[in-house]
Amino acid sequence: MKATMTSATPAAEALASPHAHGGNSVARTMFRVQLALLPATLCGFWLFGWQAFFLWLLTILSCLGCEALALGLMGRRPLKRSLGDGSALLTGWLLAMTLPPWAPWWVAVVGGFIAIVVGKQVFGGVGQNVFNPAMVARVALLVSFPLPLTQWVLPLPLTPLAAPGFVDSLHIFLNSLPPTDAMASASLLGFSKTELARGSDLLHSLSGASAPLLSWLGARSGSLGESASLLILAGGLYLLASGIITWHTPAAVLLGLALPAAIGHAVDPARYLSVATHLLSGAAMLGAFFIATDYVTSPNTGAGQLVFGVAVGVLTWVIRSYGGYPEGMAFAVLLMNAMTPVIDRFIKPRILGRDRQGKPLTIPESAA
Amino acid sequence: MGLLKALKHFVGDDWGVHPADHKRPAADLPSRRLPLPERVHLMLAQHVGAPARPVVLVGQKVRKGELIAAAHGNISAPVHASTSGTISAIGEITAAHSSGLPAMAISIDADGEDAWLDSDPIVDPFALPPAAIAARVAAAGVVGLGGAAFPSAVKLNLGRRSEIDTLIVNGSECEPYLSCDDRLMRERAADIVSGIRLMLTATGAAQAKVGIEDNKPEAIATMRQAAAAFSEVVIVPVPARYPMGSDRQLIVELSGREVPSDARAADVGVIVHNVATAYATQQAVVLNRPLVQRLMTLNGGAAAAPGNYEVPLGTLVSDFITLSGGRKGEVARLLMGGPMMGVVLAHARVPVIKGCSGILLLDAEEAAAAEPQACIRCGSCIKACPMGLLPLEMSARIRHDELEAAVDFGLSDCIACGCCAYVCPSHIPLVQYFYHAKGELSARQRAQLRAEATKKMALGRQQRLEREAREKAAAAARRKAERAAQQSAATAVAVATTVAAARQPEPAGESA
User: Fold this and answer.
1) If you placed Cys at B303, which of A214, B141, B361, B495 could pair as Cys (CB 3.0 to 4.6 Å)?
2) What pTM, to 2 d.p., does this model score?
3) What residue of A is the nearest CA neighbor of B161?
4) B11 has a pLDDT exceeding 60
């Protein structure tokens, strides 16, 4: 049914112009996004040790395996070409960036299954999914297994604690051992939420923590994607420079998060976190540059992306400030993913020679 | 740079693509005359509109420039012999179209003399009235040489009727590989400027703006020099960006006016002609020479002698290739026109036509096409589209045969420039979808018109039959009534006669 046109013979396809191509490909695009993620990922491996690496590797393998399985069951061949486009690998990578680095092995496996099978293939595969697969998996895991999904560890190389070696790490990873109390730590957003819930105000509980600087450098507990905001930002800027993404979504997300944060913090600093904390905590940077910019699940015009991004930012702030979970980026992205078809329906580019409503322009009197 | 680009993108001024132009070294070589082929085949339909009608017979001798087929109808163009010789056939030959279907052509066996028909040059062409200029352009068979092949005289007359203020001359030549307009501007700038001035007179426009892409600095310089003495002809460098040469885009660039989607350029006071058309106009009006040859680019990785050639119309592409120096290696794809919008030729036994700006011999590397993959909705096509359409949405609808939905997304505004398919990372043949949908829609429209016509005819027939039946019945009734009246009259007469006869002995049969 879908393949009415693509099943035509290659010779017939070769007949239509243009007879030149710019050289871009899906695989190249995906590869560049992965390249942009690499610095922050390597930094995360250094900060959180072998476990982080195992988790990252297994999440990706789980995604690739599920993709191959789903495509195989649906009879879509050749598998190599579909897997080779790098989209499943990227989904796995992004998911791994949002998980606690010391999460047990089954989180990676289940996460990969949810992302690829439930989040992507059920909808029809690459390009057809309504929701960002990595965020679907992250939220499903968080809701289903809150405990392992909220157990963060300190960046051990920056503490006097000894990081476990390769074999010990593998042992911890495969046996789903929780981090020891000495290593465990809450993320900044989680800590703030707990403190607020206990009734103590943030000015008091966060005093002395030079959060922005530490966040830039990644010296604090969190997922791979929220450790070194500076490296994430650098990756994002690379994506901008190489034309993979445009500025609309990231700028809008950060703005949508920063504005209410600034207002809230100005009104009641004891109740609301500062702009810098918001922008540098959680997956704000990762979300703005890598998650909300996902081609498939975000609007396809610049104006639509501005609307989408601002809404993601504002929703993130609302969920972080008033919701039950300390982090809101994943929820905000999923909510706006659902709105994307609506945004695309109402925000379209203006056709040359027509007005915004699609009516032909009127012939100017002066010219006649 | 990134910021500037972002700013441009923000204001929506980021349409089009920047393909590698491949114009040099062919563009830097002086143009050459192609040696005369043994035979030429002049298509009767080389233009938009009705095909020309042959006015010669097989066996007849013709001179170069002699009329061999006359224009037929309001929108049409005549065809002239492109060399001297004998008419050898009037019949079908493969047309320059990817379908490879045949069309009518007049074949001439060249006598090798290449002798022009005697014609007197016009003494003072610039003193001619507008209508006379247009008439000469029409008689010379000049059509839009940028590729559209619309009869030029029709456009000139339209300009005069629609109060044009600006004549836009298209020297942008935005298609990669092609450089025939570039060469023409470098070598015959003065003649082009003369042609532009004649066009100004013919259209009544006050000034002409010549748009030339800034990747042709030599052409800009020579054209500026040639136009220096004429303040009404302005040379405007435009950014090199495909499809700058598309008329709606060029009109915006040069005049700031936007042509409404349901209107013509003339409705906003401009008219667009190509530089090669301006040159052909000069040749027609000043030298009294019809359009029988033109500059064409031969290029591509498999062309042995890339360059620009003065080619007699009707020369077979195979002769063009052989006479210019042959091919180099395997030709993976043979194109007429540029790589962005050109058509694939199934074989080289196809005659060149007026609208042909070049023949490309692409080698395997240049013609390499990747297998299409699923759309990832990256939006590259939306950014590239010069018309502001949503190619990804249109193709998705066409895939599911929802052609009306594709029209809602702007299918009818698509100019098939190919930018979308050029940038598509999934290598989706978007333009093919659009051609398919447009063809299907027009087929459906025709079928609907036919169905309506049939219905109307059937209805008409039914009404006619009913009317006839009614008339027949009425006639029968009338006859019956008449008969009855006759009979009763006859009876009355008979009675009267009897009565009268009883009274007096005279017959009285007049009343019957």
Assistant:
1) B361
2) 0.86
3) A368
4) no
